[in-house]
User: Fold this.
Amino acid sequence: MSKTSITKVRKILFDYYFERFLFRLNAELNKLNPSEIQFKKKDLTFLGWLMLRFFSATKFIKYREYKMHDNQLMISTTNFTIINTVLCWSGPLHEETLTQILLLIQVNYYLIKSFFFVSNRILF
Assistant:
């Protein structure tokens, strides 16, 4: 293989990976959107479907069902990560703002955890 064909293959693989698994960057607004995954509804168990509906109702994820051109029922949902949850709650955000929110969540979690740890030692 020549260098140009290897470079083309690498670009195709990178574009595929970026499109499928990384966060969607809206270049016009310079903001991140939650990443999504699509799969067939028939591949999902009843418990899985119930969990998706529950987390969708509580706004932890975005969930939608749609039909493909061959009438196959598909599901599109955001990933179950803290980053995607923040993006689902707030909408598209700039990367700097998203990072600040995530750091704030981590610091608050640490402070709450430390408070309960100290409180339990004093009480008992």
In short: Residues 25-123 form one domain. The two ends are 70 Å apart (CA to CA). The beta strands are 24-26, 31-33, 36-40, 63-67, 73-78. The chain has a mean pLDDT of 82.
